[in-house]
């Protein structure tokens, strides 16, 4: 390595870089970078430990001072949690891999194909905030494809610092190392987007047609620590916008809609009401049937297929409830893929 090796990443060679009268630049398709949270490579303790170590070392996710938290993480969390999670991940694993990865990929590929049908060429890539494929590898693929403009689409309808902001930070970490930076746009949130809400409502109605309507429809969102909302995270407000939009779109059946927050982690207070205690209380007070959906997750994952479909259902039945039917995430739903393509199209550059 030369003493003067560049601290910046190598750029694709431009044969006309020094030409006095260069030919016009070749047209380049915009890049679209879809980002989701990430998931272990395999449902094994080793792969889960690697994933959790990266995820839970993110100061956007755990805001306890790092020196203290790293001791707790390495002494108490990482030696135990991966073993407890491995059988649960095995239970939800699809033949093609982790549901979160498989469904996110279907969305990224589906949008590229849908836009192609509309005569719009884009280069879509998927990057995961933690694990693989990494955001850096996806950004590199967009660089290698010659994308001069990149639209970043975090696959979170509701903004949270622990999901959206950390994804944006990671993209900047990559572009900071580039000499020839692309032009960038970022989608921040879309909690009440018409196409998103219509796709959710269509899936609720299809479920009701097949199984009938339960007494209540529970919309369960991933929680975050309450203090982070008090400090300015707009996540709760975004979740409530989604709840209101679904309720309105359901008309009379909107009266069945309730919301709660799941997946509490650690000892702090999180957003309330909590999903599992809510279901237990409903069962004890005589509610017999519930439909449950997780509108904040665009792809099924451990938090939906295990926590809601299995654990929360068991808790509801244990307390005397009769049926809890889980309505799957939008995943590769063609109506949703078209709606996501609309979101992308509306945010693309209009001039070449
Ligand atoms: C959809 C939005 C999500 C928010 C907001 C969120 C915040 C958040 N999560 C944790 C801790 C964990 N989350 C875990 C899994 C997980 N979380 C999301 C999404 C959001 N998290 C998804 C899609 C997944 C599933 C990944 C999969 O592989 O299927 C986990 C790992 C599982 C476990 O150990 O229980 C943890 C831990 C915190 C602390 C947090 C906000 C501060
Ligand atoms: Fe989470
Ligand atoms: Fe969880």
UniProtKB/TrEMBL annotation:
It is found in: Cytoplasm. Keywords: Cytoplasm, Heme biosynthesis, Iron, Lyase, Metal-binding, Porphyrin biosynthesis. It comes from the Bacteria. Its EC number is 4.98.1.1. CDD domains: Ferrochelatase_C, Ferrochelatase_N. The keyword rRNA processing does not apply. Its main location: cytoplasm. Pathway: Porphyrin-containing compound metabolism; protoheme biosynthesis; protoheme from protoporphyrin-IX: step 1/1. It catalyses: Fe-coproporphyrin III + 2 H(+) = coproporphyrin III + Fe(2+); heme b + 2 H(+) = protoporphyrin IX + Fe(2+). Catalyzes the ferrous insertion into protoporphyrin IX. PANTHER family: FERROCHELATASE, FERROCHELATASE, MITOCHONDRIAL. This is Ferrochelatase. The gene is hemH.
């Amino acid at each position: 390595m030369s003493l003067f090796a560049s601290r910046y990443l190598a750029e694709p060679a431009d044969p006309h870089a020094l030409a006095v009268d260069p030919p016009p630049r070749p047209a380049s398709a915009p890049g679209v970078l879809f980002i989701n949270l990430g998931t272990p490579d395999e449902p094994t303790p080793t792969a889960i430990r690697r994933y959790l170590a990266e995820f839970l070392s993110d100061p956007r996710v755990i805001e306890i001072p790092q020196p203290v938290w790293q001791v707790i993480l390495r002494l108490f969390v990482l030696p135990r949690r991966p073993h407890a999670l491995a059988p649960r991940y095995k239970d939800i694993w699809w033949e093609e891999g982790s549901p979160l990865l498989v469904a996110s990929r279907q969305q990224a590929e589906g949008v590229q194909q849908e836009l192609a049908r509309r005569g719009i060429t884009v280069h879509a890539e998927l990057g995961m905030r933690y694990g693989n494929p990494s955001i850096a590898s996806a950004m590199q693929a967009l660089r290698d494809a010659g994308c001069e403009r990149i639209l970043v689409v975090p696959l979170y309808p509701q903004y949270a610092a622990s999901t959206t902001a950390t994804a944006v930070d990671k993209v900047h970490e990559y572009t900071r190392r580039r000499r020839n930076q692309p032009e960038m746009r970022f989608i921040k949130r879309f909690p009440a987007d018409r196409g998103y809400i219509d796709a959710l409502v269509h899936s609720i109605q299809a479920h009701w047609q097949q199984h009938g309507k339960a007494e209540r429809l529970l919309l369960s969102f991933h929680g975050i620590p309450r203090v982070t909302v008090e400090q300015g995270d707009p996540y709760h407000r975004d979740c409530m916008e989604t709840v209101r939009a679904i309720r309105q779109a359901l008309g009379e059946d909107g009266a069945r809609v309730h919301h709660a927050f799941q997946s509490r982690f650690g000892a702090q207070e999180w957003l309330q009401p909590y999903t599992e205690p809510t279901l237990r209380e409903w069962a004890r007070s005589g509610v017999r049937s519930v439909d449950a959906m997780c509108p904040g997750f665009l792809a099924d994952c451990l938090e939906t297929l295990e926590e809601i479909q299995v654990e929360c259902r068991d808790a509801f039945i244990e307390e005397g409830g009769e049926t809890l039917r889980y309505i799957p995430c939008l995943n590769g739903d063609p109506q949703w893929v078209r709606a996501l393509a609309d979101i992308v199209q509306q945010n693309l550059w209009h001039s070449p």
